[in-house]
User: What shape does this take?
Amino acid sequence: MTETGKVHLVGAGPGDLGLVTVRACELVASCEVLLFDNLVNSSLLERAGSDCELIDVGKAPGRHAMPQEEIAAILVKEARAGKRVVRLKGGDPFVFGRGGEEMTILRESGIPYEIVPGVTAALACAAYAEIPLTHREHGSSVSFLTGHEDVAKEALRVDFQKFATTGGTLCIYMGIGKLESILKELEKGGMCPDTPAAVVSQGTLERQRKVVSTLGSLLAQVNEAGLVAPAIVFVGAVVGLASERDWFSSRPLFGKKIAVTRARAQSAELKALLEQVGAEIVELPLLNVVPEVNKEIASEVFAGLGTYEWIVFTSINGVREFLTLFFRGFQDLRCLGPARIACVGKATAEELNRHHLQVDLVPKKATAENLAQALIESESLENANVLVVTGNRNRDVLVEMLEGIGHAIVDAMQVYATGFNHLKGSKEAERFCREGADAIVFASSSAVESFVEQQDDLALEKEAHKPIHCSIGPATSRTLKQNDLEVHLEASHANLPAVVEVLSQHFANLSE
Assistant: This one.
């Protein structure tokens, strides 16, 4: 008989991945079945294992949400099959999330369960909009209400007139669709039309928007601003402490869409840096990076590791794939031998540092020519054995300069291949064509070449959505120009922080 599994009712928070609990991340990564709502951040779903069964039970355009009875039946069925099940809900499972109903069914069915709370939307949206829910002088109580808990019923389930005189702060979930009725009921109950009120839409996400107004004027201003669900309505004296600008929307790239063209597996760092300064990411993974090595060459290189005087790395991908191969055959870093290490730039050096390897040489500018010149100027290349770790698209200039000018004996070892990822028909391409972006970042010449090859498939529906081009450095800029693409921005240094800096400065200047 199969041992019964376990169900975890998990809060996914309000949307910002940074507000997801550590426990929630652990469970998503280890579960075998994952049921999720449409408000769950898709980046959190990417943390699920490759063998995890993902079941979308949320409502989406053109599709109704899965009935609650069917969701509960799946939870019980999968747990009885011995599986680790996660029911992932936006916000907190016990705050208008029907987690209580699911808990009761699991208990009655004899299914073991765990409840993992999440940051509920009212708390998060208020903090990100600078609305203090309590204040010693303006309000010492908070009420969580729902404007539309039962989708089968059109009438309001909450008697808002009764809450008109309770004082404190009202936090109304799912209320934007019934906003006119809710505001009327509060006024009928005796609440003054001048009472501060606000709506925060898409809270904690890069597309967050808010309207701060009064009870009597809120509806007109929300309609004029075009705010949409999901949204939280706040009513009470504390709302008067909010301002039009806040810490969240004051970040330099807030409200800007930035297209990222790196390979999906390589884009996490750039995405994180951009999101920290408020950007909304449009993913365009134009490249695929996969391990690719000639086994005979690898065997010869690793057999003679102790003979190299320099090991040269031209990219982060090269570091990762080389060390993966190295540790398959060796258990000790000392087996690398006495070779000194050089790399093309600081980012590549930092990847080596993570493996406790010190880098002896990094050129001031991250180009193959500058790396070669720095090695030549070290006066250590004459008849020296040098290993250059490369990918399939690395330029030949590095090896040519080391051999021709430096008189080194060079072995080149390809450890990965970069290929074009064709996006035609993908969700990413469709979104880019429909929405465009404010800027598109090219972090390599390969990304430019892939973009050029797919230009017809990435044609924008509206010219007004055309992004500016941001290059990571001179080599990438050169490729853009060779393909008749304008270079609007170039990072001061060929690294990701410099890319974010030049974008932030550009859009800051535009807003002045």
Summary: The chain has four domains: 6-118, 123-241, 257-286+421-511, 290-420.
